[in-house]
């Protein structure tokens, strides 16, 4: 399963915010990518967004400035994944959706191809249980924007094979990404710490204690948070955040993970953060 210097394409399944960012990361390293999504409109948006993200990554020294980017191919069906060296699944944070996609992918690729699920909180072993070859599955948690943030949380499930982990670590090294490996559990490390803070920040705004800008200013100026929790929530996507919190709440029963009304109301209203033009902040000028 050695994929570090492999010239075969890396498949990314899911052309949303995370899938597009991960595809940009791989392309920036010079590796070809097959980006799969059953929505042609999502693929069209990704093909327009990726060149902008590549330029941004180079400006921020997150991708080689003089390197030739890999070739991007798009597809609308998983069955077109023959010949890839690894598959990174980056669909929505729902167990049934991820399981269905991973089962389909497992049937389309060989036993030596690592299956990488990008998840912010669903335990890897829950997903592996549905697969014909559970040893093929390993977890990652790329941070958004994936093409700028070089640290990746890697999660090894109880049934993940040694060769699968080694292949993923080689792939990440080839992408100039640092990996921190943690044990399998709901939310792993980053989501268990970050998401309840974002939930509490939203709750403070909902309770009228402070505005979003005031909460972020205090967290930046007093506690050194780089962007502030609510700008971070907008970047993650408030719908993604609600899904991740709900998954954590379902698996732990801890009230701090229960999505607060301020978040769920914004999602109901379609205010999902940067990607929709409005969340805790207004981004309409950025998107225009």
TrEMBL record:
Gene3D superfamilies documented for this protein: N-(1-d-carboxylethyl)-l-norvaline Dehydrogenase, domain 2, NAD(P)-binding Rossmann-like Domain
Domain 3-hydroxyacyl-CoA dehydrogenase C-terminal residue range list: 187-283
Record family assignment: Belongs to the 3-hydroxyacyl-CoA dehydrogenase family.
Pathway: Lipid metabolism; butanoate metabolism
Domain 3-hydroxyacyl-CoA dehydrogenase NAD binding: 10-184
Keywords: Oxidoreductase
Name this polypeptide is given: 3-hydroxyacyl-CoA dehydrogenase family protein
The UniProt record lists the keyword Oxidoreductase: yes
PANTHER family reported in the protein's UniProt record: 3-HYDROXYACYL-COA DEHYDROGENASE FAMILY PROTEIN, 3-HYDROXYBUTYRYL-COA DEHYDROGENASE
One Pfam assignment: 3HCDH_N
Annotated InterPro entries: 3-OHacyl-CoA_DH, 3-OHacyl-CoA_DH_NAD-bd, 3HC_DH_C, 6-PGluconate_DH-like_C_sf, 6PGD_dom2, NAD(P)-bd_dom_sf
